[in-house]
């Protein structure tokens, strides 16, 4: 089945943009009409006092867009707090249009509004392509004004906008799997942040993009370009900053410990990775108790970290943390929840790898009913479970049961993907192999059963 194209709005086809532009005309048209009247009347014999009065009236109309801009800027904060992201994005578009009316397209205030809109498309709407488009359109104007302004106050605001702009570009590139471009832009954000700190003499007021956000993004970009030591340094810095600001038991540390553990695993420092995940687990237990989805997730990651070490002394820990995770998920999210079933599946794979096939089979069989409830009889998850159960039976030498399970799996796969899909073909090939082995085994058994030997012809008795 052909996938529907993803709609990414642009300035020309974004309905939000059109909607807000239409509303903005209410602010723009009165001043335009007044100017027309003013120019017409200047040659109509009106007195100088009348012309001056009309000029003051025209200027009064221009106060309206400024008031609307201030109102929209306040409204954005309120809408974000209420999680009304689409509406907040509409207000950001309105701010761009009003800034163009008030300041002109080449003013840094207009570019600042565009940078905010780009950040909004990234963080509120999850549209990196649109975010990049608006950020790029604001960049040159901000850089020009940065180099030419003499006002410290203006320069601070421009630097703040540039930090947000380069952060937006960096994260947008990262989301599109372009690590090098992401790192390049995030470095620029870091340099502008440093310059901003110097202007503020070390103490920077609260920014839209915090130093912690920027440091974490730099760590992720470093990881994307496989600079593991650099990524580690950035995450260590982020952790130190969070501990200094909020203490060592804050929830902010959990995701940081989990990401830095991933880096240590890639560096093959499994013991260090386990230590970081133990700290994350401890914070989750203290903040949410042992029976919570957050602690269940931390427990599952800890189980997988112990398993990745590949050392025999970690086997007990793998079982303990997997069982804790499954129990917590079942108690809080239910036995049919995606997280519960996924964790059971991961535990079963580990059990099979470590020779505990019977235990894995029991767990998969017990979870099958929950999978049918959650995903339906003919779902990918159910097919995968039948496949895994069939493989376990095959490994145990139970060919008949393995064939039955794989036949069920194949029926679902053909229904979902068709008979020519790679998954269907792989299952069919395995099934054919098992059926041949089963037939050979049956013939061998028939030939070796007592009383079923081939009879020899006997001659006539003498």
What are the salient characteristics of this protein?
single chain, 462 residues, mainly alpha
How would you portray this structure in words?
There is one protein chain. With 462 residues, the chain is an all-alpha fold. Helix 2 runs antiparallel to helix 3 and helix 15 packs antiparallel against helix 16. The chain is elongated and about 110 Å long.
H and E string? HHHHHHHHHHHHHHHHHH
Percentage of residues in strands = under 5%
End-to-end separation = 80 Å
Counting DSSP H or I runs of 4 or more residues, the number of helices is 18
Rg measurement, Å: 33 Å
Shape: elongated
Secondary structure elements and pairings:
Elements lengths: L14 H27 L6 H34 L3 H19 L4 H16 L4 H21 L3 H24 L3 H21 L11 H14 L3 H19 L5 H15 L3 H19 L4 H17 L5 H18 L5 H16 L3 H19 L4 H16 L3 H19 L4 H27 L14
Quick structural overview:
78% of the residues lie in helices and 0% in strands. The chain has 462 residues and is an all-alpha fold.
């Amino acid at each position: 089945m052909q996938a529907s194209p993803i709609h990414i709005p642009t300035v020309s086809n974004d309905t939000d943009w059109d909607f807000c532009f239409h509303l903005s005309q209410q602010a723009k048209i009165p001043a335009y009409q007044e100017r027309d009247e003013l120019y017409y009347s200047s040659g109509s014999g009106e007195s100088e006092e009348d012309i001056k009065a009309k000029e003051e009236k025209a200027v009064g109309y221009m106060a309206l867009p400024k008031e609307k801009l201030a109102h929209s800027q306040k409204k954005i904060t309120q809408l974000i707090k209420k999680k009304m992201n689409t509406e907040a994005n509409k207000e950001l578009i309105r701010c761009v249009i009003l800034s163009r009316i008030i300041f002109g397209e080449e003013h840094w205030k207009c570019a600042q509004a565009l940078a905010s809109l780009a950040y909004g498309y990234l963080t509120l709407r999850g549209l990196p392509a649109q975010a990049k488009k608006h950020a790029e359109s604001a960049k040159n104007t901000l850089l020009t004004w940065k180099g030419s302004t003499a006002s410290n106050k203006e320069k601070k605001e421009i630097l703040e906008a540039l930090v947000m702009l380069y952060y937006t570009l960096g994260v947008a590139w990262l989301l599109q799997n372009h690590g090098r471009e992401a790192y390049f832009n995030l470095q620029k954000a870091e340099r502008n942040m440093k310059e901003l700190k110097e202007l503020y003499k070390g103490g920077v007021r609260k920014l839209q993009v915090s130093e912690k956000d920027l440091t974490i993004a730099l760590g992720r970009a470093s990881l994307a370009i496989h600079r593991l030591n650099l990524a580690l340094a950035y995450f260590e810095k982020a952790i130190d900053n969070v501990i200094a600001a909020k203490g060592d038991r804050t929830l902010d540390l959990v995701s940081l410990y989990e990401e830095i553990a991933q880096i240590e695993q890639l560096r093959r420092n499994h013991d260090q990775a386990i230590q970081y995940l133990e700290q994350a687990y401890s914070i989750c237990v203290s903040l949410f108790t042992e029976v919570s989805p957050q602690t269940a997730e931390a427990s599952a990651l800890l189980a997988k970290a112990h398993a990745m070490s590949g050392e025999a002394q970690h086997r007990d820990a793998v079982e303990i943390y997997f069982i804790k995770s499954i129990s917590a998920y079942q108690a809080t999210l239910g036995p049919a929840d995606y997280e519960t079933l996924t964790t059971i599946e991961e535990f079963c794979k580990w059990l099979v790898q470590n020779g505990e096939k019977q235990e894995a089979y029991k767990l998969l069989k017990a979870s099958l009913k929950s999978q049918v409830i959650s995903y339906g009889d003919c779902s990918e998850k159910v097919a995968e479970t039948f496949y895994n159960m069939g493989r376990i039976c095959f490994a145990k030498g139970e060919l008949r049961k393995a064939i039955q399970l794989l036949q069920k799996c194949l029926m679902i796969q053909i229904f979902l993907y068709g008979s020519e899909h790679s998954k269907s073909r792989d299952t069919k090939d395995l099934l054919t192999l098992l059926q041949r082995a089963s037939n050979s085994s049956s013939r061998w058994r028939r030939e070796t059963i007592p009383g079923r030997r081939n009879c020899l012809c006997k001659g006539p008795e003498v």
